[in-house]
């Protein structure tokens, strides 16, 4: 599990050139195709996070609420962010529900397996650290009850439940580890063409704490619905968004609009790392949140009083790209190869066999 297979390496390299060509295609060509309302798999900033497979904007672990006591093994304790209610579910129930919330269940089985392992790992780490697992069942975030699945899926319920079981059964209890401990298995929807190193999104010391969250190639994401999006904002819209995002220490936007957003610096994965906003240094994730963009992988123009943002990818960009996992699975990679690619240096711990009677 420590190294990607030669087959997977050849697959990734073979699409790098193709991705480079696609990245140069003008936005107008893509705009001719309708954009979906959301990506094939929300993600969890790390939690859809882990964006957790959730999307915090800072380190995912900083988003969790502390528990007053350790959680019991075999179950997960959840807290409904809307109602404040705390309840417990079995490990199996949470993994299945998170898969329903996170993925398009028509995705290849190996991609669904990879997501199941990532989710179980992510929440196992939170549990081990005594953190509450925030969810929002009403909005299908992290967890949703069986009754909601039946209501939403209707006559397709049995087919979707079968897809979930087929993905979870072979990997139940498996989790990714680094130095013997569950990793921070962050994931997100769609990359810009490569994932992002943790230190470029969360904090400078994130690489030391999570050395497996590195930038890796994910060129297949460019073929995903939702890879490109566009946001237009008038000068007034821009000013209001910035004021709302920075209420305590607002950037100075008293100058010409052409000087509001300058000195943009990009990471190697073409995500905005930092920029000057009204003379104030802000990070790419802060800009993304303030302006309501799908990712920090954006460029922009300004003409006739309108900021026009072209955005590549969807999510914080750290860890496993769900669209990339689907792409690799369609081309023959199994879930172990997918996980090894997106979390280099980790090991997959197999579930312990039940003790014989």
Descriptive overview:
The chain is of the alpha+beta class. The protein has eleven helices and 15 strands. Strand 2 and strand 3 form a beta hairpin.
Summarize the structure.
The chain is an alpha+beta fold and 357 residues long.
Low-confidence stretches: 16-50, 52-58, 65-70
**Broad shape:** globular
Distance between the termini: 32 Å
Radius of gyration: 20 Å
Task: Give, in order, the helices and strands.
Answer: HHEEEHHEHHEEEHEHEEEHEEEHHE
Number of helices: 11
Strand content: 15-25%
Which structural category do the helix and sheet elements fall into?
A: alpha+beta
Total tally of structural domains = 2
Q: Tell me how many strands there are.
A: 15
Which sequence of strands runs across the widest sheet? 1-4-2-3
Largest sheet: 4 strands, mixed
Rounded mean pLDDT is 84
* DSSP helix fraction: 25-40%
What oligomeric arrangement do these chains adopt?
A: single chain
Give the tags:
single chain, 4-stranded mixed beta sheet, 3-stranded antiparallel beta sheet, alpha+beta, 357 residues, 2 domains, 11 helices
Indicate the topology.
Elements: H1 6-23, H2 27-31, E1 65-66, E2 75-80, E3 86-90, H3 91-102, H4 109-128, E4 131-135, H5 146-153, H6 157-168, E5 175-178, E6 181-182, E7 187-188, H7 206-209, E8 228-234, H8 235-245, E9 261-266, E10 272-277, E11 280-283, H9 284-291, E12 298-303, E13 306-312, E14 320-321, H10 322-330, H11 335-342, E15 347-349
Parallel strand pairs: 2-4, 7-14
Antiparallel strand pairs: 1-4, 2-3, 5-6, 5-15, 8-13, 9-10, 10-11, 12-13
Helix pairs in contact: 3-4, 3-6, 4-6, 4-10, 4-11, 8-9
